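Re: weekly structure request thread

Next one in the queue (173 aa):
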Amino acid sequence: MSRVTDISGHKVTRGLVKAHDASIVHRDIKPANLIVTKDGVVKILDFGIAKLTGQTAMTRTDITLGTMAYMSPEQIAGADVDQRTDLWALGIVLYEMLTGQRPFRGEPETALMSAILNDTPKPVRDLVPSTPARLESILTTALEKDRKARYGSAAVHARSAASASRPRSTPSR
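Done, posted below.
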């Protein structure tokens, strides 16, 4: 479990902080776009559909970009995206790493879209009871349908993830 939080909670989030500080929203965070080197360095790949925040979209307005299973509700709705879109996708990746399944499922793609927009994911601790409550809370926040309820930035997410991976101190007797 600590490897999961180390990779997703710390290393990917640090990369997102750098991208977001440069006003770049990746828009397609998913396992295939994350690589861990033999030295344990996590690299975020494929910024091909990334967007500079505040810039007018250079893509057609009648298509949605990204991988459906990792898309945020605002991406599916065709709304403007910001860094909280990447944090949603990171929440999906972390959920999948912890449980072995995605929080939203459906076939065909329209059923998956409906699940993302309307369903509540099964609590991680129902699937993996050993998951720390603090980590489940981070996932719950990352997967809020209303992006205003998610972490406001990758830096805030990183601080929460760092606190979740630290062992709780026990009072001395």
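Residues 56-62 have pLDDT under 50 and may be disordered. The helical segments are 2-21, 73-76, 83-99, 109-118, 124-127, 133-142, 154-165.
Next request, please.
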